[in-house]
Amino acid sequence: MSEIVDQINHVHREVGSREVPDGEARTVLLRRTYDAAIEDVWDACTDPERISRWFLPVSGDLKLGGHYQLTGNAGGEILRCEPPRLLAVSWLFGENPGFSEVEVRLTAEGEERTVFELEHVAVVPPEMWDQFGPGAVGVGWDGALLGLALHLTGEGAPADPEAWAASDEAREFMTRSSERWGAAYQVSGAPADVAAATTRATTEFYVPAR
């Protein structure tokens, strides 16, 4: 197993649900520890220039109450910003996106270790959840945590992201991510056959047959 694929093993995943004003929301939570000071991790998650190096280019009025836009992806409002420990944003994509929020929580574990938690809470169309389960967003967030890990260690993102996404290494990473989200879904109470079906659908979406 490559070191990049092994990054899958550093993440704890949870699946749940929560009541929000728009109804029942689904939740996915990822937690891992980075060997970096909390101030460094916070800066990597909030500085636009650094965000573009490990995630996506971002623009907007990047302050509390302001709005942001990730190139080709989500945008929304900055709801809470409490440096260096808490960042919460609405996470909206497409027309009529409904309720969707992401919260990042950081906890220092000594001077050079930081526990990173990301929780995505969203009201998901039932047909989408029934087909893909938590893996629909979970695989993408696993990729983001991988990008942050490479950035914090100075390795940086692959020189050609599109080429890497089609590589055997990336396909193995996404396959294992999908499997881990299926396992987390089953732990949350989903029947084994349902978790298996959503895992297959998620894997086929992210890792289509060649």
TrEMBL record:
Residues in Activator of Hsp90 ATPase homologue 1/2-like C-terminal domain copies: 35-148
Signal peptide start-end: none
One Pfam family hit: AHSA1
CDD domains: SRPBCC_CalC_Aha1-like_6
Top-level division of the source organism's lineage: Bacteria
Membership in a protein family: Belongs to the AHA1 family.
Protein name: SRPBCC family protein
Organism (species): Streptomyces javensis
